[in-house]
Amino acid sequence: MSSFLSQQVPLSWYLLLSAALFSLGVVGFLFKRNLITVFMSIELMLNGVNLSFVTFAHQWHAVKGQIFVFFVMMVAAAEAAVGLAIIIAVFRARATLAVDRIDLMKL
Amino acid sequence: MIVNLHLWYIPLLPFAGFLINGILGRRLPKWLITTVALLAPLAAFGVVLWCAVLTLTPIELRSWNGPGSIPAVLSLPFTETCPLAWINIAALHVDFSFVLDQLSLVMLLVVTGVGLLIHVYSVGYMTDDEGYARYFSYLNLFLFFMTVLVLAGNALVMFVGWEGVGLASYLLIGFWFSKKSAADAGKKAFIVNRIGDFGFLVAMFLLVANFGTLTFTEIAAKLGMDPGWNGGVVTVIALCLMLGAAGKSAQLPLYVWLPDAMEGPTPVSALIHAATMVTAGVYMVARTHVIFDHSPFALSVVAIVGAATALFAATIALVQSDIKRVLAYSTISQLGYMFLGCGVAAYSAAIFHLMTHAFFKALLFLAAGSVIHALGGEQDLRKMGGLWKKLPVTFAVTTVGVLAIAGIWPFAGFFSKDAILSAAFLSGQNGRILWTVGAVTALLTSFYMFRLWYLAFFGESRNPDTHPHESPWSMRVPLVILALLSICGGWIGIDLAHGLINMERFTDFLAPVLGARAAASGGEGIELYLSLLAVGLALLGWLVAFLFYGRETETPARLARALSGGYKLLERKYFVDEIYGAIIVKPLLVISEYILGWVVDVGILGGAAWLLGGIAMFSGAILQRWQSGNLRSYAAWLAAGAAAVLIFLLVPWSTVWPASIEFVWKAAGH
Q1: Does B627 sit within 8 Å of A38, measured CB to CB?
Q2: Is A32 part of any domain?
C-alpha cells in the first residue's frame, strides 16, 4: 500500500486534492444560503486539511499527523452534534435556514 | 525572685476588655459586660500599684534574702523593650519600649485610678443606654491607648498612643452618632487635632534628622553633652511639639474642639476631656522638657500661650449657661495654667496641677452628670436651682470640687495653682505679667464656679416640672472617693519642714525626671504673701458670685444689659467659631467645591474620562458597521484574514523589499 502511494501517485497530487477540497469548502461556506450546506462545507474544509495531514504523515514517516487527524475527526463529530442541535433550534425559532435571515447578532 | 515588672500588662488588660466587649458585647448578658468592663481598669490599676510598691520600696528595706525579695534592678526608671526591633532602617532604630519612671508612674496612677472610678460611675450613668457594651469597649480602648502614651519610651510609641486616644475621643464624642451635633463634634475634634498632630510629626522628623533617635533619654543625653544646642533647630522642634500639645490639650488657637466635645456622654467628658487625654499635651511637654529647657524662646511661647488661654477661656466661662460648657471652658483655662507652669520651667508644679485637676475636674464633671441624670437630661443652668435639698450627696461633692478649683486652702487645687502662680511670679522679668494674668484668671475661676454652684443648687427650682432623684450608689461612690481626693490630693506634696503651703515632696519625687526646681532667689518670704493674695482673690470671686447669684437679684441681668456688647462677645465665645468658619472652613469649602470639585473633578478628571469614553464610542460607531450580523460576511472576513496571513508568509520579502529585513531585525530589538 505504501509503495503504491509513494511510487505511483506523487505527493503533489494529494496536496492538490486537499487544497481543492478545502477551497470547495471555503466557497461553499461563503456562498451557500442554506445553513445545512454551510455546515457541510465546514466538514469539507476539515477533511481537506485531514488529507494533507495524512499525506505529510506518510511522507515523513511521522505518526503525529495521523494522530492529529483522529483528534480532528473526534472534534468534528462533537461539533456536528452540537451544530445540528443548534440548527434545529434555530429552525424551530425562525422557521428558516437561510443564513442571511439569521442576523440577530448585530448591534 | 521577681526580675520583671511586665509593664505591658498595663495597656493590654484594658485592650483585652475592649476586644471582649467590642466583639462579643452584643451577645453577652449585661452583668458580664459590666464585669469585663470594670475588671480591665481594675486589673490595670492593680498592676500599676504593684509596680509602684515594687519600685518605690527603698533599697535598704530590700536587703533580706528570700523568695520574695526585690532585686535592685526593679527601681525607677525601669525600661521594658519589646525584644523584636520595631523599626530598623539604616541609622534609625526605634524599639517598642515602655519606660516607668516617677513621671509616668504619677500619670499612670492618675489615669488608671481616675479611669477606674469613672468606669464604675458609668455603670450607673449608662445603664439604660442601648450601646452599653460599645460604650465600655471604647472606654477600655481609651485606657489602652492612654497607658501606651504614658508609658512610651520614645516619641513614636507616644505618637501611637497619642493618635489612639484621639481615635477613642472621636468615637466617644460621637457616641450618640445619630444626633448630628454629636457626629459633627466628633469630626471637629478629630480634624482640629490633626493640625496639632502635624506639629508633633514634624517635630519627630526634625528629631530624627538632628539627633538620629526618638528615645527621650537619648535625646536628653545628646542635648546635655553638647551645650551648643541652643535656639535654632531646637526652638523649631520645641515649637512644633508645642503645636502638637496645643492641639491635644485644647490651647489657643486650637481649643475650639473641646467645648463641642461635650456632646459625648458626661463620664467621657470627665475622663477624656477633663482628667486624662487633654492633659497629654502637658505630659508630653514635661516628658520632652529637656528640649524646651534649651530654648528660652519656646518656653516663653508656652508660658504666654498658657496664660492667654487661661484668661481667655475663663472669660468665656463667665456667661455660659450650659453646665457642661462652663466646665469645658474651665478645663481649657486650667490646662492653660498647666502650660503656664511648664512655660516657667516649673514642670513638677504643672504635673501636680495636672493631678489635682484630674481629681477635682473629674469630680465636677461627674457631679454635673449626676445633676443632669437627676433632671432627665437638662443641662441648662437657668432651668436648675434648689437642688441641694434633693441631691445632698451631689451637692456636697460639688461643693468640694468648687472649693478645690477655686483654690481655697486646704483643698487640692490650692496647692497646685499656688505652686504655678508663685513659680510664674519668680520667673524673671515677664513673670509679674504672667502672674497677674494667672491671678485674674483665679478670680474669674472662683466667680464662675460659684456662679454655677449657686445657680444649680440654691434658690428656688426654676423648672418645677422635674422631680430630681439622687443617683444610684455606683455613681455616688466614685463621687465621694474623688471628693476625698480633691480634699487630700494636695497634701501629698507638703513637706512639713517648709511649712504648710508647699509641694516640695512632690517636686523632690519628680526631680530625677524633671530636674530639681531652680532655687528661687528671695522667694521664701514672698511666696506666703502670694498665697494669701491668691486665696483672697478666690474669696473675692466667691463674694461677687454670692452678690450676683446668691439671692434673687436683677444685678446680673442689669449688668448684662449695661454691657450688652461685651456680654454678647463673651456669650458667643468671642465669635471664634464664626471667625474660623469664615477664614478657614469657608475658603476650604469654596476651594473644595469650585476648584477641586468643578475644575479638577468635573473638568480634568471627568473630562479625561469623557474623552476616553468618547474615543471608544466614536471608533465603535465606525467599527460596528463590520458587525453586520450576516454570517457570510463574517466568514468572508475570516477567509480574507487567512488569505492575508498566507500571502504575508509566502511573499519573499527579502527580494521584494530588501530593507525590510533590517527593519524587522531592528524592531525586534537587535
Answers
A1: no
A2: yes
